[in-house]
Specification:
Layout lengths: L13 H15 L4 H18 L3 E4 L3 H5 L14 H9 L24 H6 L3 E4 H4 L4 H11 L25 H12 L3 H11 L5 H11 L8 H8 L3 H10 L6 E4 L2 E4 L5
Parallel strand pairs: 1-2
Antiparallel strand pairs: 3-4
Length: 261
Amino acid sequence: MELGFDQIYIQANPKVAKTLTRRFFIERGNPKVHWDAGINCPLIKLATEYNIKLVFYSEHGETEYGGNKISDDSDKVRDYSEVLENMIGDHPLNWVSDDVSIKDLNPYLYPEVEDVEKAEIKAVYMSYFFKWDQWSNYEYVKQHFDFEESPCGRSEGTFTNHDSLDDKIDDLYYYMQYIKFGFGRAIRDASRMIQNGHMGREEGCELAKKYDGEFPQKHFKDVLRYLDISKDEFFDIIDKHRNEEIWKKVNNKWKLRFPLV
């Protein structure tokens, strides 16, 4: 606010968000499916409401972190089909249930593409115009604003102290990446740092080997309480989503078949 920008705060119904978090953790091993929709859709809704013609999103994930582009220029101009396919992975209308109505899902529903086109709204990615470097972004924010880093010195599962600090369930989200794909938050962060020249491969491998796959213990009790599940249920769900093509049991403990570091 001190910088002179208008701000609009949007919060989805907490009870609905909690229901969806529990559902998606159990069904898909990803407690933040609805969150992906929630950070993508409201901006375009506000743009149509306030007659804003140009919307900037941050980075294009498929280009910056690996993935499939839907169209030739989707790294510049936001493609709704790509958002559904790659970022959300589903259409929110599929989330209607006995506990969640269409009205409940309003914060997660993108406006009709025809309405966006009629309003002549263009949504583009900042990373198309300026090199996207997560570490450099952090250094800039740290220098110019009162930025609070992790009080623990780093986040669980990685060596960084500045990314994804605003949600207690983030550590579980990244741990599930490790469970399903065999690489976790530390490998992700080290890969970014190596790619952008902020550390060497040897250092990155050492950090990844030390922290990748670390269990998210710090907020574990809070997560169990929020998801309304027991500890045994939690680990049963974890194993349900474990890809046995990359995991095997050795002395009754799960081990990666092909460790990356």
